[in-house]
Amino acid sequence: MASDERTGPADHKIGKTKRGPDLFMVLTWVASVAAVATLLWILESIVTPAWPAIQQTGLSFFTSTAWDANRDRYGALPFLIGTAVSSLIALLFALPLGVFIALFLSENFLPLGIRQVIRFVVELLAAIPSVVYGLWGIAVVIPIVQQFGGYLSDSLGFIPLFSGPATGNSMITASLVLAIMVLPTITAISRTALVAVPPTLREGSYAVGATRWETIFRVLVPTAAPGIVAATILAFGRAMGETMAVAMLIGNSPRLSWSLLSPAGTLAGLLANQFGEAHGLQLSALMYAALALVVLTLFVNMAGEAVLRRAEKATAGIR
Amino acid sequence: MKTSKASFLFLGALVTQLLSWSASATTQLQGAGATFPAPLYQRWIAEYTKANPDVQINYQGVGSGAGIKQFTQNLVSFGASDAAMTDKEIAAVKQGVVLIPATAGSIVLAYNIPGVDNLKLSREAYIGIFLGKITKWNDPAIAKTNEGVKLPNSAITVCERSDGSGTNFVFTKHLSAISPEFKDKVGEGTSVTWPTGVAGKGNDGVTALIKQNRGAIGYVEYGYAQHNKLPFAALQNKAGEFVTATTASGAATLATTQFPPNLLRAWPSDPDGKECYPIATFTWLLLYQKYENAQIGEAVKKFVNWGLADGQKFSEDLGYIPLPKEVVDKCLEALKTVQ
Asked: What is the pLDDT of residues B281-297, one digit of tens each?
């Protein structure tokens, strides 16, 4: 740029450079204001079209189980529950698995080179597009769930969670695939947290006579807990917002069911399925559902943040 | 300061660059709407523009509801819908609307039962299945009309549409016409809530669900079942006969349609006649009565005229039912009113 040529060393006096606004500061200001403004803008453009539905259905939107577009009755409870339950089941599988992988990768059971390869492969799972997970679920998980679900509902059908008939596209299918999708998030952040535990803690633990396993579970994991909690929350957020793979696998049913082998629906899936063809109050109700999803994710993140802070305070002494 | 000035200049240049576009010489037509006739319309467009290179036509299969929306907002040159347009929707278009039934198709009940490919379903049976009252394939209501067929003792997985759709509209209209219970419990509409089953997006989504789930049955356009080699059931019609969806049985159904005067909008929701397949429907092109841009109006008219006259011969190949001659004549007449 032309101005660079004129900027000789002589210009670098404090008095001269302070003249005029600092371009870098202006840019950072603009960027941060733009980020906040975009969030507000998005919220505004959800709330405005959602307003008719908010006025008409009010809070019954969250308690009613009937989503009946042709009769203009909208209740999102089945989708709210479907979103929460599918994400929680995904975490149930992904959290222990992810933490164990993270432990394995942060300990020296294997040479560093091999651990790096494993770590790379696990983190690569995050790079797979959602739709590919959906296709994989269709090709692999659905047949397994149909086969096993059949046995399960035949033998344990008296338990509401496993009552039949077992459908391929069901809550459990979507949850299993979600678990794999959030696994890299949990593994990567937990591993970073475990690696960041000061080596002095480990040495101290060994010094007082603890075994390796005692050290891992009584010292390392508790110290890294804030990171693991953060990982869980991020994973939960990702699972709740996941759309494509879930819409392909969960069966998109607006009916509540106790059975994990029955089809269910999620808020994100509902939006993806019905938005294109919706009009009038249905469109408004979908926007209301979108608002609920945004608020839900916001709430989860805030709750997570609070937990994270408390955990950080509790472990502050040993850090 | 100097640096910031230069940056702004650079940004300005970039924006100018982005904003500039070029105009083209050919007439461009934009269409959007139903996915069901989309393969046929694409074929028409390909054939038509080959002969008329001065026109460019772009059709987006975004769904009937979205098609009506874009048409009403004046974003397209023509729309398309399986559910035509309601009186209220027509009233919202200030240029006026001409509905042209452009092609037709049957909705079939495709299924996936290993070893069974000649299923016959009575009205009682298929209403029961879609109401969730018949849950096993060897239910007496199904077995009664399928003597000699080995029906498995397995659960029925009903596959349906998760999105709003013209296919939903036509199918639920038929079920509501033949079953008061269905009308009461589910009702008719482009987006309904089914009492049972799994749902997928679009005809392709439902087709995929049927293929994935053993013991599945679902409603899709004839062309989708045919393309994917899925067997579909012979359905009992009003006269009590079991009829398979074919071009002939679909055309017989269409021929029973009585259009109201001045509006080509009707559904044969429960046709009389021994040879009629019970669920067939037209699908409509939505044109403006009065085009603001005369050049575009003229081009749309020419294209639709060609589709009605020459385009019908591509129907059967792609799984559609060619329009009966009386309907084509009525359409051409209606097309003349477009300005």
From this structure: 999 999 998 898 888 89
Q: Does the beta carbon of A64 lie under 8 angstroms from any beta carbon of chain B?
A: no
Is there a contact between A277 and B201 if contact means CB atoms under 8 Å apart? Answer: no
- CA-based nearest distance B248→chain A, Å: 32
Report d(CA A252, CA B202) in Å as an integer. 13
Give the pTM. 0.82
Cα nearest neighbour of B198 on chain A: A251
pLDDT tens track for A176-196: 999 999 999 999 989 988 998
Distance CA A24, CA B116 (A): 72
pLDDT digits (tens, 9 = 90+) for B102-155: 999 999 999 999 989 889 999 999 999 999 999 999 999 999 999 888 999 989
Chain-chain contact of B157 with A168 (C-beta, under 8 angstroms)? yes
Q: Which two tokens stand for residue A236?
A: 């939960």
Task: Report yes or no: B286 and B67 within 8 Å, Cβ to Cβ.
Answer: yes
Contact indicator for B243, B275 with CB cutoff of 8 Å: yes
- Name chain A contacts of B200, Cβ cutoff 8 Å: 169, 248, 252
Strand (E) or helix (H) holding B103: strand B97-112
Q: How far apart are CA B134 and CA B179, in angstroms?
A: 15
Q: Which two tokens stand for residue A299?
A: 């709430």
Choose among B66, B191, B199: nearest Cβ to A69: B191
Measured from the Cβ of residue A219, the count of other Cβ atoms closer than 10 Å reads 18
Task: Report the distance separating Cα A74 and Cα A65, nearest Å.
Answer: 8
The number of C-alpha atoms within 13 Å of B336 and in the hemisphere containing its C-beta is 6
Bridge-based pairing state of the strands B97-112 and B120-121 = unpaired
Tokens coding B210: 């049927």
